Amino acid sequence: MENEPLSKPSTAPAMHRFAILLACVTFLLLFVGALVMSTGSGLSVPTWPLAWGKLIPPLVGGVRYEYAHRVIAGLVVVLTLTMAVWAVMAERRRIVRNTAIAAFALVIVQALLGGLTVLLGIPLPIAMAHTSTAIIFFCTAVALAIFTGRWFEEAPHLEEPPHRLALTTLGVITTLVVYCQIVIGSVVRFVNDAIAIRDFPIFAGPAVPGVMSEAVLSDYVHLGGAIAVTFFVLWTSLRVFRSHLDQPRLVRLAEAMVLLLALQILLGLTTVWSDGAVIPASAHVAVGAAVLATSVAMTLCAFRLYGRPRRAPQGASREPLRGTFERKVTA
Q1: Is the pLDDT reported for residue 324 higher than 60?
Q2: Residue among 268, 118, 261 nearest 195 (CA)
């Protein structure tokens, strides 16, 4: 049929809004998870999935943070299941269906890792797997919000201005660097009971301290990661500002990424100078996730504009995209 929509017109905008809701609730979950870590509340409820056999335990002390984390995590599971079922039943685009199914698989793995983290007393390998999977799931939720949007479906395919390193490649590198930095930061938070270098940026006098303990070394690695993130975020953003000003969506994402990076650096310094105060430390984690989400969104949009032209799904008729080939019609 001519010009058949890829999903039902009445459900496509609703699905996009639902995907945005899923991403936002997942972001909230990351922030509350950071609060659990910052307050040392991870084992305040040492049983799972129930709290001492109760659905709602006495909400005192660290139990409040841990219980809030579990409630929001349960909500994320329900939202993800709803999204996956909805996409499979109502969405024709394979990329949306597959991403929704992958998101549901990830959230189940994430929930099981969270349970093991509690039951086994927060062992570092499982705790890091829990954190790493959480970040990947958040990126998947952001991707769903991008894929279900009208812009992603209707944007034309264009020829990218010539550069030694394509914007899509640069975006992938930036995203990976930011992801690795978040994981490194999580390791630092698990390994160090306190900030090892409290007088940054003078490093207890000399630039390189005489005694390089495990805590100091981990802080140095995290600092090196922060420098790498700053370098690639600025490189990617400057590329957009110089060569892609005709793409407002890319420009807005680049502006947001730079502003979030500046806020992230400020929160990192505040965390150090406040000796790991709960709110700055937790906000530092959340804004780092926001930087990653922005990088993921920019990379996906760049692939949509400058990657290989996408073929229309089977059974759907589409007009040729500007800047690509025209379909040949045979009698």
Answers
A1: no
A2: 268
